[in-house]
Amino acid sequence: MNSTLVEVRNLKKHFPSPAGPVKAVDGVNLKIEKGTSFGLVGESGCGKSTLIRVMLKLLEPTDGKVFFRGKDITGYGFRQMRPLRKEMAMVFQDPHLALNPRMTVFDIISRPLKIHGLARGKGELMVQVVETLKAMGLQTEHMIRFPHELSGGQKQRIGVARALVVEPEIIFLDEPTSALDVSVQTKILKLLDKARRERDLTFFFISHDINLIRVVADTMGVMYLGKIVETGPKEILLEDPHHPYTRGLFAAVPEPDPDKIITEIKLTGEVPSPVNPPDGCNFNPRCPYVQSRCREIEPELKELADGRSVACHLY
Amino acid sequence: AQTSVGIALQVEPSKLNPITYQDTETGFVLGSICDPLVTLDEEGEFIADDSVVESFSVDETGSEYTFVIREGITFHNGDPLTAHDVKFTFEAFMDEELGSPHHRYYTGIESLEMEGDYVLTVVLSEPNVTFLTMSRLRNHVLPKDYIEEVGWEGYERNPIGSGPFKFVEHSPGNRIVLEKFDDYWGKKAEIDEIVFRFYPELSTAIMALETGAVDFMPEMPAEEFMDLQDRGAPGLSFETYQKFEDHRICFNKREDSEFSDVRVRQAVAYAIDINELIALTRGDMAIPARGRIPSFHPAYAENANAYDVDLDKARELLAEAGYPDGFKTAIYAPAGYRERVQEAQQIQQQLAQIGIQAEVVTLEWGTYLDVTAEGEAPMFRERWSAGVPEPIGFVESWHSESSWNPIFGTYENPDVDALLDEIMQTVDSQKRWELYRELQEIAMDDVADYPLYWPLIGEAFNEDLYIPDNLWNAFRRPIYYINYWSYQ
Amino acid sequence: MSEDLQKEIASLKQKKTGQMYLTWLRFKRNRLSVVGLSFVLLVIFIAIFAPLLTPYEPYDTNPFRRLESPSREHLLGTDELGRDLLTRLLYGSRIALQVGILIVLFEGFIGISFGLLAGYFGGWIDEIIMRLVDVLRSFPVIILAMAIAGIMGQGLFNVVLAIGLVGWTTYARMVRGKILSIKESDYVEAAFATGESTVSVILRYILPNVLPTAIIMVCIMMPTALIASATLSFLGVGVQPPLPCWGSIAAAGRDYITRAPWISTTAGIFIMFTVLGFNFIGDGLRDAFDPTSKRN
Amino acid sequence: MKKGRYVLKRLVRTIPIVIGVTLVTFLILHLTPGDPVRIMLGPYATPENIAILRAQYGLDQPLPVQYLTWLGNIARGDFGTSIRYNRPVTELISDRIGITVLLTLSGLFISVTLGSILGILAALKQNSWLDYLCTFQAMFWISIPGFWLAIIFLYIFGLQLRWVPIAGLTGFVSLILPALTIGLQEEAWFARPMRAEMLGVLNEGYIKAARAKGVRYFQVVVKHALRNVMVPMITMLALRLPWVIAGSVVVEVVFAWGGMGSLLVNSVLARDYPVVQGVLLIIALSVVAANLFADLVYSLVDPRIRVEGGKK
Amino acid sequence: MEELLKIEQLQVAFSTEEGPVEALDGVELTILQGTFHGLIGETGCGKSVTGQAILGLLDNNALIKGGRILYRDQDLLRLSPRKIERTIRGKEIAMIFQDPGSSLNPLFTIKNQIEEAIRLHRKAPAEKREEMVLQALKQVKLPDAENLMYRYPHQLSGGMKQRVMIAMMLACNPKLLIADEPTTALDVSIQAQFIKVLKELKEKLSLTVLYITHDLAVISELCDYVSVMYAGRIAENLSMRDLFKDPRHPYTIKLVNSVLGATTTLDQLEEIPGSVPRLINPPGGCRFHPRCEEAIPVCSQEAPPLREIKANHSVACHRR
Ligand SMILES: Nc1ncnc2c1ncn2[C@@H]1O[C@H](COP(=O)(O)OP(=O)(O)OP(=O)(O)O)[C@@H](O)[C@H]1O
Ligand SMILES: Nc1ncnc2c1ncn2[C@@H]1O[C@H](COP(=O)(O)OP(=O)(O)OP(=O)(O)O)[C@@H](O)[C@H]1O
Ligand SMILES: [Mg+2]
Ligand SMILES: [Mg+2]
Q1: Residues around the ion ligand 3 (C-beta < 5 A)
Q2: HEC states along chain C?
Q3: Looking at domain E3-92+175-275+304-315, which of 3.30.200.20, 3.40.50.720, 3.40.50.300, 2.40.30.110 is its CATH number?
Q4: pLDDT digits 0-9 by tens, B458-475
Q5: pTM score, two decimals?
Q6: Chain E contacts of D217, Cβ < 8 Å?
């Protein structure tokens, strides 16, 4: 039986800027069921990273609520959040930036254990760190290295190890492989997948690579300009994307197959600035099916019969 | 041939106002622009030569001074100089509003009376034999009409006088230029132009003199003079004369001070080797002092105890005073006064020999004045110089009621007070000199202050420059008589 | 298992060259910085052992042997009070280091603390501190210091105060800038995401990353401090005699530049070499501390 | 953001700095221990004189009132009256400011040109002997106290070689040594950043792109690189201005140029507070103005500031 | 088809403080007139260095240790820098770079920068140049070109900048365009638009392009021939079809199999064990051997030469 682990309601995050507020996240609703993997795709700048940071309370939301295990954690302060940090871990996009250059690998991985009091004594700490490292395919000798002495893939494995070591309930992954080469990417993906299956973890995975989301996610969401435009079970969405943006996006992905080439370009133009998103449906300037109400009324995220939700006046 | 003379000044004259200036440099410049009312001869007697008066006289009561002004003198703008101008000048000094630093010397004037255009009588409210001395009548006669027309600020911008040179320009921070006044009534200048240049940095000034960028530097420091002379710096001539000045150590003689005990002061006096100090900062450009009044003056006290170096005696005196192992104290000197700071360091070494550990404290001038006046400085290195022949200034501070008394460390001796009072009232100068001598002998026994030396002034100047011998003298000084200079 | 592990790690650690050692290796590669280091070490050595290096006392005057040119007896000649110049210069290293260190400590402490506050907390604290920095930086150090020392009086302490009053702004700006970039960095965010407290983030993540900058700053600011204090001496408001301070020796010697050029010159050279030393070290450290600055 | 708004914003940001500068200038002289008037007049002053002067300078008022009065006077161009010269401070400064400006600008000119040329050459010939020479000479000049350099220069070129007259400001020749002293000292501060910035810019994509489309290297350096280096160099210029001014104070004293620097030194030593305050304020305000000016210049050079639509 | 550019045994090293980096060690490839030639490989394998070597734009610390780059039978490596500058760059060969953000000079308008290229390589009177700028921008399908050319780079989005770059380089009228990962920084939807523009240009102008990327999917969209690089060497030269249908080199096979497609599952994905070697002390013999499952002793001793196994397909492997 699935139960909702994390839920956000009408979450908003606006950054002040000289030209007006940057509406990075602008009314996001989503639910992450326990034990599943939620994959969120969207193009660069649509607010994916910001969403994760708000959900993790690394940034204060402008509006909306975040629930964890049904509890509203929106107003939680540092102390209240602290025990939850053990439950919600995060893996960062760029492994070169996510590790403190002045800490050894051992320090980096053991810090979360120490913070949450998960190991008694130095011996136990070491055993746990080494085990985690081994699980990541690294050796004991890596423990005394500094990040700059590691390759990109190794660094990202440390990043994953840091998230896994506290045995969290859910891991938020912000494009964990986009800075890596394909061959290295495979390694990380497999490690993550293995960990998820072994530990019954919940994933919240974001990426701009649809193929990647397809591989790692059970449930999929598509984000555009700070909003979720379509979400639902992966198979349904991939099979038959409804939202014009989803369709355009899927069609634009090139295939590593000479027989399948992009024939038609459905997405023209560029993403508008999040400072001044268009009125109504914010996809309307690029939408081939645009109607007059699209320019005035913002479509709600409606649940359809097949289990997906879509924010479009067409449905 | 060269017709211009360059003069190096270390400080830029503040403003060319004969009434209000305080710095010697302004005096140097004004001395060529303006004529004095009376002058001094080589002995320090007041005379009428080179001045705007033909003659002057004092009545037998000593309270009426009559000046007969020379006829035919004109200011640089062509106006004639008359008794009106002299009166105007006196009034300017008396005018509190104008803020002359010498104002108080003129307070004794009751009235100024004119007889015709060329005779002025100054009537004092009570007899004062030193009126000429105190009112410093080296000061300059000013053009009344011109000043009334342009105002004081206008005057400062473009000062005129009746002197041998007229003002051309003052380029601030850079130079002041004067040119020969062709209609001068007296000895006409042979030099066409004087350029005063300002060198805040001593070494630069000396280099300027050496390279011929300037020809003369008034009151050059003894050390630099000695150096140029010893090296025989090419292109320069050298002259020396004694200044009316003395250098001394002052003690804080207030009760809480170690130096309130005369034996301690004597010990210090015995420990200080004046010859070393002179060697240090002046080479042979000084005469070891005996008493305070310089030796060329008739009031010189040959017999004032001079405390030749005697360390044993010094130690003995210290022990008697209760400091067999010496004590810790401090010697203060104003920062930026190189000689005084250097000598203080030497004295520190000398006192160390008798166990007195004196720290050298150098303070910025203003702070130095404050600290010494408030009696916070146990010992300090002082200097007194006078521009007039009456030596009263040297000794006045010993009077327990003098305003200078607390500043120089307080000193009380009824005999000294009585002698000083007597000096003030003695008209006969020979008798006065005698009293001065007696006074100094008493004070030296007390070591009221400890005089160190009387400096000689050496001037190095362009060897092509001819400066008459009679100007090399404490009371005349070449810088005030540039109209007598010439190029050979 | 855990004991074996500990042993294994201990042996690994032994084999592994430490971070400091690597920094040192990188530093050593830069020949100029080694030269700089040796200058500075020499100055420190001299400062410590000055009394053993010379038979003379720095304050012993001799009016009859002043301004002597270098001789066997007085290797660098004597100064204007007949003191042995070399002795004074050797002892002068003490004052130089003292002045330099005091200034750097003073301005470093204020600057780094304010920089930390401004950079970390941002907002109005940052605004106020940075405006103050802007204000103070509008005054040339020497000129403000001169005014302050001129008013408060001279002396070592006032020199330190006067120079430090503007000097700290340089630290504050650097440290703030560095912190802003560190604060924005993913690894700090990652630290918060794992539940680190603010204090811990500052101590474990921000400070260690600011430290190299701060150390480099010290090496860069030391020369400025030394030169500024020498200049104050020259302008007549610096450290006062008879303290054997290089700046005041060089400044006092200027009056004797024509007859005893060695006074000013040697003092100037002592200053120059020390300053050069710190500059070289600063340069070397900048490269040595930043392992990523070189291409792999 | 429109250019006008940018300019306005910069101006507004300057206001608190200007206020701060006046406050610091004011407080420095008023928070010092001791009574300024007593210090000004020295110990020989009578109590009446002190009282008169106190009233005259408004020192009997509470501090904030004094500040506001002072500020009001300054706004009207009245910097008070010099104690030593008994003349308006404004007049004293305006008489001398020209000399200091001349010296500062010529020193700045030498340092910027020399520094830029050396920095560019060093960057273009990275790791060559020229590069090392450039680094070394930069280190050398900044390791020498300015006054010492000035005196040595004067000694060598003035006294020994007699190439220049030691007579203060007497024409172009007399400008060479002072300007060179400042120029050499400051040159280092332009050469090294110039080198670094130039290296940075030369590594930028648009430089490679320009070369890839066949622009001659010389052209690339002159057109594409130099203009981009200008922005950080203008910042450097504004940043170094206080130091150049400080340098010219020292140089003025040594070379017997009576500019504002000499005036300041004399006034500090003579405790002529109104002058000290005036000079301090003028210098600080010109630095503020220079910074403002630099900001405005960027906006001319850099379209990212000039033209609306800055992305980040 | 005519060979436009032929690289033979190109060896490039960089001197660094830690020692020489042997970035390229015997690169061989041939670009045919009118084709798109892909160059793929993982980060740091030397793709960009190869591209830059062709144009003589290597960093100062580079040392060309051997080989030839034949462009229409003249060896570019033998040309003086001056000659390359005057006769090759822009005129014959142009290049666009990965980062669209930094490839345009922020201080000049688009028009100014394109005009510069036109002035250098095409004889046209000043009045006509504006027209040509407009033409160039329209050619790459930039909307609102009339206004756009007066803008500054910071006012454009990444995709637009990259298209301006192409327009600028094409304005030079080069015979060969080197594109160094031009789409890596772009979003998929923008990338698709960009690819489309390139394809159209290929047809219209019969453009020859050396396309550097690590994205095999893009290769499959655009390229006719492909060179696979590994650690400074060419592993395999082959046609695009062969890359997906008939790869021979163990590295190529792994690489192709590690790419996610629309239908691949995680289990199908292959990973390459170990990590890319550092080029300061590269492994002897075949540089791939430490990570190769099929390695035999000779692999660690001798570097395999490129051998043609069929037309337009050569492999550098001892086992094939
Ligand atoms: N701290 C911030 N201040 C102002 N704007 C911000 C801030 N962080 C993000 N933004 C803006 O918010 C928007 C969304 O940013 P975000 O980083 O969440 O996008 P993303 O989807 O993660 O993009 P990418 O795929 O490039 O990582 C962007 O327009 C970005 O410029
Ligand atoms: N100037 C240089 N100095 C030293 N090493 C260099 C230099 N330029 C490149 N290299 C090295 O040469 C190798 C090849 O670099 P290159 O930039 O060609 O890789 P790439 O294949 O383009 O990688 P990417 O996909 O990351 O762009 C790398 O190992 C790099 O570190
Ligand atoms: Mg992101
Ligand atoms: Mg590359």
Answers
A1: A 49
A2: CHHHHHHHHHHHHHHCCCHHHHHHHHHHHCHHHHHHHHHHHHHHHHHHHHHHHCCCCCCCCCHHHCCCCCCCCCCCCECCCCCEHHHHHHHHHHHHHHHHHHHHHHHHHHHHHHHHHHHHHCHHHHHHHHHHHHHHHCCCHHHHHHHHHHHHCCCHHHHHHHHHHHHHHHHHHHHHHHHHHHHHCHHHHHHHHCCCCHHHHHHHHHHHHHHHHHHHHHHHHHHHHHHHHHHHHHCCCCCCCCCCCHHHHHHHHHHHCCCCHHHHHHHHHHHHHHHHHHHHHHHHHHHHHCCCCCCC
A3: 3.40.50.300
A4: 999 999 999 998 889 888
A5: 0.84
A6: 81, 85
